[in-house]
Amino acid sequence: MSFNGDKIKSTIGVVLGLTSLFVFIYLIRFATGNDIWYDEVFSLSFANRSFGEITAFTARDVHPPFYYYYLKVISSILCLISGRKYFIVVCKIASLIPWLFLFIISITYIRKRFGQLTSGLFMLLITIMPQLPSYYFEIRMYSLALLLITTEVLISFHILTNIDKKNNLSWILFFITGILTAYTQYYACIAIIGSYIAVFLSLIIQKGLEKKRHILKLLVSALLSVILYLPWLPVLRAQITNISGKYWIQPLTLRSIAGCIKFITLPVVYFGKMPEISAGLLIIALLVLTVLFIRHGKRDDLIIAICCLMPVIIVVLSGFILSAMGTPIFVYRYLIPTLGGVWLLVAIMADRAANRKALLLLILPMLLAGGLNIMGIRAEEGNKLATISHSYDVVSDIPEGSVIITNFDHVCAVMSYYRPDCQVLLYEAEIDKLLPDMQGNITDNVHDLDIEKLVSSQDKEVYFWGSFNSREEIVESWTTLGINNELMDNILIERYWINVYKLSGAVK
Prior knowledge:
It is globular and about 85 Å long. It is about 65% helix and about 10% strand. It is of the alpha/beta class.
C-alpha cells in the first residue's frame, strides 16, 4: 500500500480525530454515577469550602491548591444549572473539560503546525491509551495537569521554532501556564521544571539573532516563578516533613523503570494474554518509529523531541532521587500529566513515516492496545454503574443520625461524605487527620468498649460496614460482648465489597 500525498493523510487524520470524539462521548456515561473513592473525598470536601478554607486546609494536604480552586469554580457554575443534588457528577464533569480544551488545541494549533494526521492520531492516543481514559472522569487533578503540561510543551516548541521573533505573548503564556501547573500538583511542577530545562538546552544549540534575548526571558520567567512560589515553600516543607517516613509508597528500584513502561503501554483489561501481547507489539512499533524518526529527523524534530520528553524524563528521575533520599513519594499515576507530550511525539513520528508502507502496521498496535484498554474501562466502570445504584440505595436507607462503624479508612472517608448526617467511626485504626476536621463526622481509633457502650445505650441505630475477611472475625468477637449482628446486605463501596451489619443487643 502507498500513500498518495496529503489528501489521504488528512483523511486518515480526520477519521482518527472523529473516532477520538466518539470515544470521548462514550466515556462521558461513566461520569454519571455517584461512585467515589478515597482520594476523591478530599477533592469533594475542598470544593465545598471557601477559597480561604481551601488554602488553609490544602496546607495540611499533600498537594498545592490550584486544582481545588478550579474544581470549586467549575462545580459552582455547573451547580447553578444542575443543582447541588448532582454535585459528584458535576465534579466529574470538571475533569472531562480539559479533554475538550485539548481537542480544541489539537484541531487548531497542532493541526496547523503538524498536520491533520498528527492532530487526529494525537487526540485518539490521549483518549484511548492505557491509564489515560479513567483520569478524565476521576475527581482529581490529573486531567487538568495533563492539559497544562501539554500546553506548555506546545508553547515551548512554538518559541523555539520562531527563534528570530520576540514572541513576547508566547513567553507570557509560557510563564503563566508554568506557574499554574506548579500550583496544581508537585510532580506536575517537576514536569514544568523539565520544560524549562528543555527550552534552555534547545536555546543553547540554537542559532538566531534573538537567541540571547530568549535566554534572558527564560531566566526572568524562572525567577518570577520562584518568587511566586516562595510563599508556598514553607507549606511544602511542612508537608514533606509530615509524610516523611510514614508514607505508604514503596521505594523505587531499577525494576520501577520497567514498571513505568508497563504503566504506559499495558492495557488494563482481563482478556487472557492479549494485554501483554498488545503491549509488546506497541513497544516494538514505538521503537521502529523512533528509529525512522532519528534516521530522517531534522533540527525541528530534535527540538520537539526534547520538549515532549523532558517533562516525563525529569519526573521519573526526580522520583528515583527522592526515593534514594529516603522519601519515596512517587507512584506511576504521577506520570499521567506528562503523557500528552509523549503521545504527541508518537503522533508526530507516525506522521513522519506516513509515506511508508509500514505506517498502518505501526499504528495498528496503538489501536489494539487502546481498544483493549477501552474494553477494560467499559468492564470496570460499567460494573460500578451497574452496582452503585443499589449500593447508593442502601447508603440512603440508613436512618438519619445513625452510627456507622467501619474497619477501613477508605470506606470510612467515603461514608462520611455520603452521610454527613451520621457519625462515622473507624475501628482500631487511624485516618488522615485532615478528614475529621473537614468532614466533621469522623472519629478514628474506636475500640470494643466504645462500641459496646454505643450499642447498649440504644440511643441510635448502629451499623457495621465491614471490609475484607476480617469483618467476619470482628463481628464474631463482638458476640462475646453480647453484641448481636444482622447481615443486611453485601454492596460495592469505593472499590471494595462491604458487608452491612446492623448491630444490636449488648445483652448482659
